[in-house]
Amino acid sequence: MLLARVVGTVVATRKDERLVSSKFLVVRPVDPAGKPEGNHLIAVDTVDAGVGETVLVVSGSSARMASGLKDTPVDAAIVGVVDQVAVTG
After folding, report:
1. Which CATH number fits domain 2-81: 2.40.50.220, 3.40.50.2000, 3.30.70.2570, 3.20.20.390?
2. Which pTM was predicted?
3. Cα 61 vs. chain centroid, distance in angstroms?
4. Do 81 and 49 contact (CB within 8 A), yes or no?
5. Which burial class, exposed, middle or buried, applies to 25 when counting CB atoms under 10 A from its CB (0-12, 13-18, 19+)?
6. Which uninterrupted H or E stretch holds 5?
7. How do residues 7-41 score in pLDDT, each as one tens digit?
8. Which of 70-85 are b and which e, b meaning 16 or more Cβ less than 10 Å from the residue's Cβ?
9. How many degrees, rounded to 5, is the angle at CA 17 between CA 14 and CA 18?
């Protein structure tokens, strides 16, 4: 699972029929302090996230287990909107 920030949107008018009505967002992984790290990803949004929000992203086979994505050709899915990150210790 990745912590990421939504930085943009993707519009794809032609896509696999199993992805019709899906919302695609561009996300960039961040560290717990919110500092960008790693490469951008395109993720299917399952929680109605928006640009600027910090989100939880799952990838690989875990992405296909997200709500409504069973047997769908996705590699990354947004499964949560983060309210707060606290690191202790």
Report:
1. 2.40.50.220
2. 0.92
3. 14
4. yes
5. buried
6. strand 2-10
7. 999 999 999 999 998 999 999 999 999 999 999 99
8. eeeebebbbbeeeeee
9. 125
* Concatenated DSSP letters of 27-80: EEEB-TT--B-S--EEEEESS---TT-EEEEEEGGGGGGSTT-TT---SEEEEE
Separation of alpha carbons 2 and 68, rounded Å? 20
Structural domain spans, the chain: 2-81
Residue pair 37/70 in contact (Cβ under 8 Å)? The answer is no
